[in-house]
């Protein structure tokens, strides 16, 4: 009777061990999937940040150029020049945010 009970317990322990191994494998797959999704979300957030900085710089340049033309009467030169400056500022902001170009204050901090 004791042997039957021990065999039964051993079978149940083996079955639970197999189920636990299956659950751990599934959890590992889910964690890998979640890690990949996290990387994807971070990339999407970075892309949205960079594109909004770029578009904002262009829009600000265009609005300032339009206002300059409106009040000074230099149409269309103020709009053209400030739109191009806004484009250049947008490209520079994107490059700085992406880490391709150093921030201007980084050089001064390194010298101290």
Automatic annotation (TrEMBL):
Signal peptide: none annotated. Coiled coil: none annotated. One of its GO terms (cellular component) is proton-transporting ATP synthase complex. GO terms for biological process: proton transmembrane transport. Keywords: Hydrogen ion transport, Ion transport, Membrane, Transmembrane, Transmembrane helix, Transport. The chain crosses the membrane at residues 50-68, 74-95. Belongs to the bacterial AtpI family. A possible function for this protein is to guide the assembly of the membrane sector of the ATPase enzyme complex. This is ATP synthase protein I. It comes from Rhizobium esperanzae.
